[in-house]
Amino acid sequence: MPRLRRHALARLAALAALLGPARAAAQAGLEPLPAAAERVVVGADRDYPPYEFLDKNGQPAGFNVDLTRALAEVMGMQVEFRFGTWSEIRAGMADGRIDLLQGISWSEARARELDFAAPHAVIHHAIFARKTTRPVASLDELRGKKVLVFGGGIMDEQLTRRGYGPDLVRAGTPADALQLLEAGRADYLVVAALPGIWLSRELGLADVVPVARSVAAERYGYAVRKGNAELLGRIDEGLAILRQTGRYEAIHHKWLGPLEPQGVPWGTVARWGAAVLVPLLLGLGGTVLWSRSLKRQVAQRTESLALEVAQRERAVEELRIHQQQLVQADKMAALGVLVSGVAHEINNPNGYILLNMPILKAAFEDALEALETRGADTAGLTLGGIPWERMREQIPLMLEEMQAGGRRIKHIVEDLKDFARREDSPALEAVDLNEVARAAVRLLGAAITRATHRFELELGEGLPRVRANGQRIEQVVVNLLVNACEALPDPGRRVRLATRHDAARGQVVLEVADEGVGIKPEDLARVTDPFFTTKRARGGTGLGLSVSAGIVKAHGGTLELASAPGRGTTATLGLPPAEEPRA
Predict the structure, then answer these.
(1) How far apart are alpha carbons 484 and 481 in whole angstroms?
(2) Burial profile 442-468: b = 16 or more Cβ within 10 angstroms, e = fewer
(3) What are the pLDDT digits (tens) for 3-42?
(4) Higher pLDDT residue, 442 or 425?
(5) Residue 537 pLDDT exceeds 90
(6) Do strands 47-48 and 52-54 pair parallel, antiparallel, or not at all (unpaired)?
(7) In this structure, are residues 555 and 472 in contact, taking their beta carbons and an 8 Å threshold?
(8) Strand pairing of 100-105 and 38-45?
């Protein structure tokens, strides 16, 4: 009896090495060895069948749930399922309330936040549409269409990264997305194939069908928070055990097998082939070869025609854009002529003010001397209804303010004329970037005052000069300041213009930062495209930043934009310093 007992213990040890202590004890018919089971909180999507969902009784069910339970069994872990929406479980993972995500597709962006176990499955995504909608064959054909996606899912990330963001309609769950598609809220839906088929059957959506299968394949498995190598190692080890024992295939077949395409039994194929197909194939063999050759020729010709059509459409679109640019450029040129004329008309009466003001000041000083000699005769004297005692102090100040205002008008008009002056071949020279900044601020003084009470001008000292055309660079700075002022929701927000020398990058830098509404991430990459604007309703043309970017590029500089919605935007203009003349 002791000898038999030793054999039983040896077999139990071998089973424990493969299946884990609790599993081995159960298979040996013995009670599990006492052990402190680790509690792992597992996050799961409550509406993602057949992978994971809450059934009609509110109980966890699905392929991922059974797989996690099997992993917990073989690895001696205690798991607690925590179901919620996809955004809720992602948030729980981020703040530490969830230890393990049992079903998540891998991506580079997600891998920067999570550590992934070795993927145990591949999820194929399909395009769904209504039966009356024109079918498509790939994701590329969805460009310009209204497309539904599962918000926050892997296809939301992939299509947004491809630039489809403005055309996407995000739904809270795959079921919501399918119902919105049937209701006509979008043209197509991109979602995992099996959940889409499962839910369309459960919801009775007879009008919604998959029109393109396997348009994307994503690796699928478990993920933990960054640095949780111990739990990640146990998951990988448990998956290897389940595959070796065949339990993984059994769970996979239970949940996913009925939905996956089934092959025809080989025996049936052989019987039909012997009775019918073999003679038919022999008779049609030559026809098939001829048909294949014909299809190849038709496909080549179709591809050639499609390429010609695409090239022609692209040429027509480029012509339309160029025509719009010419019309807009002509309007801006006419505006420049108008500005020059108005500036000339302002300069003439302002010249009278500047010429006559010194004479008035000298006349008042002479009159003041005469009145002072009269002494008591000035008692009770009033000028304009104001006692002489006050006017003798105020008149010099008023005359000085008027002369200073005239000089300011002259500077603004000169800056305006310089800004509007057209130069077909602008000359490059050593330019002081601080002077360019001051001129731009003078030109926009009234607009800046209306937009903000917190304008800050911080000009660096001893900056190297830059080799540039001052008028063109001033145009860029004016545009950046105008954009910053227009982005402010109220005058209490700040606008800051600063210059500095960045020796590490070899640039003289001008920076315009605002505390405005910011730019959406999907719009940030397009703000320098011609005619792209988020201010169309307020008269925006979409040319300001495009022209500015072209000017900076022609000067060998850089124009970088950084923005966060609701927190403001920072535009950084960098220009190379002018080479110092050799001795």
Answers:
(1) 5
(2) ebbeeebeebbeebeeebeeebbbbeb
(3) 333 333 333 343 344 344 444 333 333 333 334 457 999 9
(4) 442
(5) no
(6) antiparallel
(7) yes
(8) parallel
Q: Tokens standing for 569? A: 């935007």
Confidence (pTM): 0.43
Alpha helices in 106-228 (DSSP H): 108-111, 154-161, 174-182, 193-202
Collapsed DSSP state (helix, strand, coil) of residue 456: strand
pLDDT band at 199 (very low <50, low <70, confident <90, very high): very high
Residue 463 near residue 432 (C-beta atoms within 8 A): yes
For the chain, first and last CA: distance in Å?
106
Is pLDDT at 174 greater than 70 in this prediction? Answer: yes
φ/ψ of 427, rounded to 5, equals -85, 140
Output the pLDDT for position 88: 94
Spatial distance between the Cα atoms of 231 and 258, rounded to a whole number of angstroms: 32
Beta-carbon neighbour count of residue 158 at 10 Å? Answer: 19
What the block records as the tokens of 306 is 């499609």
Give the H or E element holding residue 281. helix 278-374
Exposed, middle or buried, 128 (CB in 10 Å: 0-12/13-18/19+)? buried
Question: Cα–Cα distance between 444 and 412 in angstroms, integer?
Answer: 9
CB 224 within 8 A of CB 100: yes
Which amino acid is residue 426, in one-letter code? Answer: P
CA dihedral 91, 94, 95, 96 (to 10 degrees): 120
Question: Between β-strands 208-225 and 386-387, what pairing exists: parallel, antiparallel or unpaired?
Answer: unpaired
Grade residue 141 by pLDDT with cuts at 50, 70 and 90. Answer: very high
Of 121, 116, 162, nearest in space to 139 by CA: 162
Question: What's the Rg (C-alpha) of the chain?
Answer: 38
Mean pLDDT of 409-437: 74
- Cα dist from 16 to 21, 75, 220, whole Å: 5, 10, 28
- Cα separation of 114 and 157, whole Å? 16
- Asked if 502 and 574 touch (Cβ cutoff 8 Å), the reply is yes
CA atoms lying within 13 Å on the CB side of residue 502: 17
Tokens of 506: 């070899």
**If you search the block for the tokens 């991506």, which residue do you land on?**
107
Beta bridge partners of residue 217, listed in sequence order? 124
DSSP 218: E
**pLDDT, tens digit, 9 for 90 and up, residues 472-513:** 899 899 989 999 999 999 999 999 999 999 999 999 999 999
d(Cα 128, Cα 210) in Å, to the nearest integer?
Answer: 4
- Tell me how far CA of residue 171 lies from CA of 185, 279, 333, 479, 494, in angstroms: 11, 53, 48, 39, 37
Distance from C-alpha of 51 to C-alpha of 103, rounded to nearest angstrom: 8
Least-confidence region, from 43-52, 201-210, 378-387: 378-387
Dihedral pair phi/psi, residue 186, rounded to 5°: -155, 170
Going 442 to 446 to 447 to 453, the CA torsion angle's sign is: positive
Query: In one letter, which amino acid is 333?
Result: A
Average pLDDT over all residues of the chain: 82
C-beta of residue 43 within 8 angstroms of C-beta of residue 94: no
Three-state DSSP state, 10: helix
- Token digits for 399? 């005359």
Q: Which helix (H) or strand (E) holds 508?
A: strand 507-514
Calculate the CA 224 to chain-centre distance.
26
Q: State which H helix or E strand residue 311 sits in.
A: helix 278-374
What does the chain come to in residues? 583
